Automatic annotation (TrEMBL):
The keyword DNA-binding applies. Residues 1-94 bind DNA. This is AAA family ATPase. Residues 1-94 form the OmpR/PhoB-type domain. GO terms for biological process: phosphorelay signal transduction system; regulation of DNA-templated transcription. SUPFAM superfamilies: C-terminal effector domain of the bipartite response regulators, P-loop containing nucleoside triphosphate hydrolases. It comes from the Bacteria.
């Protein structure tokens, strides 16, 4: 819930309220209001607004003015809170406030935070105003946060864990007395650095400059607060220890973690973030257009060069690209960016060489989101030697495989079955290998992108011929025993 003058904006329910009463507002006008209010004082350009309000259609710019003047009429005496910056866009005059004001939260908690600390503490990254395909996940996460002290959003690199966590935190912020505290962990490597970041971002006061976990537990005690710890996988052991201590010291604390791997602690509930939905083969154009992965691709490609996906042949190719990229938003964004240079057909044709073409992300994105290879490098770097060996050897499996098949192909004198047991568990936990159960039997699978990355590693290690030959020998043997 966002407060604007005398009004409250409920983004989830898409409602504008005045003194608890719903105020009628057209859907486009609401989109404009939500976009400007969510930007938290940042200028929203006309182009951005056009993309948000009319994502799939090209309309005249004066449509914004029409809906904006309807909105200002409804806002009445608060109309001037939405400022027009001539020739550029629109901006909120006040910093947006959550329904429970940040200041009230700080007062209630009794913590000694300086003004600027309190302000920073209230800061969550702005929500993506056009998050696709995550309505249900956001509702589920919000509900789970009421029940579990620690909720970890787990999934493959670039699947959208951080994005959905930020959205869910915005939706949940009104459920907490204290402002939500968001801590980005990707640059931090030691326990002290993590603790210091929590102290700073929450605006806590601790007695000793050499902050330790007991001090943070004491400073957070009794606070009803949501702590979002983003990108924990590379400091997973440290985070397990800190998070367990924090929730043991405070029943009212909720911790939302994003990580490619679970913390593996008792109070944790794991929420697996699923890929965006992709169309099955032979879908109709209408069904393809209903898929969130396709919408992400089209939105991104059209923001760069317009008119993509307007004929059926192209749309079918887009559907297949999204399917072959396993519905992973980061890969889809990178592929859509390549349409400018290669066209949809060119991107589709070169998907076998995806590690080369899926590069050139947003200049301002995290380094590991600039290329598909970099996002896998981030996971590969934190594997131990045994898990690395297994991972690259799994590249020979083009389909689902059992543990027995895996051992027959990858194990030898140097790489034992005991090694394989430990390492497959690690690869599954780190979201590099998927597992499904057919009754009691586990079957493993690498996504197409993961397999392409693993294959490059297998080739670089010079093992490709040997492992491919073992795989080829294994296949006829299994066919014979099945006959
Ligand atoms: N539902 C979505 N709708 C639109 N864009 C999305 C969605 N989910 C993710 N994205 C985009 O995909 C990219 C990757 O998302 P995000 O950073 O959330 O992934 P992640 O799972 O946290 O990755 P990592 O494992 O590297 O931390 C971002 O550019 C983000 O804006
Ligand atoms: Mg992330």
């Amino acid at each position: 819930m966002i407060e604007l003058g005398r009004f409250q904006i409920d983004l989830e329910m898409r409602m504008l309220q005045l003194n608890g009463e719903t105020v009628q507002l057209g859907s486009r006008a609401f989109d404009i209001l939500a976009a400007v209010a969510s930007a938290d004082g940042r200028l929203v350009t006309k182009d951005e607004l056009m993309n948000i309000v009319w994502p799939d259609t090209i309309v005249e710019e004066n449509n914004i003015q029409v809906h904006l003047s309807a909105l200002r009429k409804v806002l009445g005496q608060d109309r001037d809170l939405i400022l027009t910056v001539p020739g550029r866009g629109y901006q909120l005059r006040q910093r947006r406030r959550n329904a429970l004001s940040d200041e009230a939260g700080v007062r209630a908690s009794g913590i000694r935070a300086s003004g600027s600390q309190a302000l920073r503490a209230s800061r969550l990254p702005p929500p993506k105003s056009r998050l696709l395909g995550r309505d249900l996940a956001v509702r589920q996460i919000r509900a789970l946060l009421e029940q579990t002290p620690v909720l970890t959003l787990v999934g493959a690199g670039g699947i959208g864990k951080t994005t959905v966590a930020v959205e869910a935190a915005h939706h949940s912020s009104a459920d907490f007395e204290e402002p939500v505290c968001f801590v980005e962990l990707a640059q931090l490597t030691t326990e002290e650095a993590v603790l210091r970041a929590i102290v700073e971002r929450c605006g806590l006061s601790v007695p000793d400059p050499r902050v330790d976990v007991e001090q943070v537990v004491a400073a957070l005690a009794r606070q009803r607060r949501l702590l979002v710890l983003d990108n924990a996988e590379h400091v997973i052991g440290i985070m397990a220890h800190i998070v367990e201590a924090l929730v043991a010291g405070n029943d009212a604390l909720r911790v939302l973690v994003t990580s490619r791997e679970p913390l593996r602690i008792m109070p944790e509930t794991v929420f697996r973030v699923e890929p965006l939905d992709v169309p099955p083969p032979h879908s109709t154009d209408a069904d393809i257009l209903r898929c969130s992965a396709v919408n992400l691709f089209l939105r991104h490609a059209n923001s760069l060069q317009g008119k993509v996906g307007s004929d059926s042949t192209e749309l079918q190719l887009v559907g297949e690209i999204c399917r072959r990229l396993d519905g992973i938003p980061l890969a889809i964004e990178l592929a859509a960016a390549r349409v400018v240079a290669l066209g949809v057909e060119g991107v589709h044709r070169r998907l076998d060489d995806r590690m080369a073409i899926l590069a050139g992300g947003y200049r301002t994105a995290l380094p590991r989101h600039q290329t598909l290879r970099a996002t896998f490098d981030w996971s590969f770097a934190i594997l131990d030697q045994n898990a690395r060996s297994l991972f690259r050897r799994l590249a020979v499996f083009g389909d689902a495989f059992t543990f027995e098949a895996m051992c027959a192909v990858v194990c030898d004198e140097a790489y034992t079955v005991a090694n394989a047991i430990g390492s497959i568990g690690e690869l599954v936990a780190k979201s590099l290998v998927g597992v499904e159960f057919e009754g009691p039997v586990a079957r493993y699978r690498l996504s197409e992108s993961t397999r392409a990355y693993a294959m490059a590693k297998l080739q670089a290690e010079g093992e490709q011929d040997d492992i491919a030959a073992r795989h080829a020998r294994y296949l006829p043997a299994t066919r014979q025993s099945a006959a």
